[in-house]
Amino acid sequence: MSELMQPAAGHSPADGKVHVAVLGLGRMGTAIANKLAGFGFEVTRWNRNGSLNSDSKARLAAALQGASVVVLSLFDGKACIEVSELAQPHLEAGALVLNTSTIAPSEAKLLDALFTANKVFYVQAPVMGSVPAIDNGVATVILGGAPTAIDRARPVIDTFSQAVLEFESAEAAAGAKLLSNHALADALLAIRQALLVSGQLGLPIDRALDVLELGPLSPMVKGKRARIEGQIEFSSADATLAGLIKDLELAAEVSPAAAEANFKLADLVRKLKIDPNADIADLPRSAIP
């Protein structure tokens, strides 16, 4: 683990710990907050719980008081912009904002401009991986921003990541995450198609998955095999189909290829009546009789 970064001027807790405010307490935000607390950071937490009313704004101001690092883990770009515009006045020059949310490149560019204009460091830091990867400290994180900002972000990122991929801008990092999700959708569709073919060839599901584990789809098949086969009853989804479809819609705004993949995925989920809040493995699993 890297040594903890020094707080921004005027943000030194009495015990010397770095104060991180985590904004957005969905499954990913909660996992990140817990991981940071476990590594000795002073963590305050905030969730909007509906509209950004006076109570929500007051709680946000309280969570940000004394924070030298802010982690955004919000539903989409619109939420990130709304919350950031409220949060920015509470941050002192030299503070750091890490945005782990999946947003459009144009939204990342806007947020970068908002914070840097006010002398606050901004890093777009979407996570490749699910909550278990955060819990186990093995997530891959895409980082985009100024080199100085990324250097300051690394001690926080190191608490829950095993690898990072750096880009020269927040905009590029946001685009890279959308590309990753596009490839994920294609892989899920390919596995489902392969399982349909295997059934028509008379191969049992376990042997078909054995074959797929030897090919280019191996990482996905190995990671999701227990869910695809239904060997274990899981209490919750690692990553949902609804979340993947939402992210693909962002790429579809500028990419016809992404739009096509998103249409195929959303159409299958609708036609097969798969619960959108189910794990992404339920898509290939739907090919099993």
From TrEMBL:
Limits of the 6-phosphogluconate dehydrogenase NADP-binding domain: 20-164
Keywords: Oxidoreductase
GO molecular function: NADP binding; oxidoreductase activity
SUPFAM superfamilies tied to this protein: NAD(P)-binding Rossmann-fold domains (SSF51735)
A Pfam family this chain is assigned to: NAD_binding_2
InterPro entries documented for this protein: 6PGD_dom2, 6PGDH_NADP-bd, HIBADH-related, HIBADH-related_NP60_sf, NAD(P)-bd_dom_sf
Lyase is among the record's keywords: no
Ranges in a coiled coil: none
Protein name, as recorded: Unannotated protein
Species per Swiss-Prot/TrEMBL record: freshwater metagenome
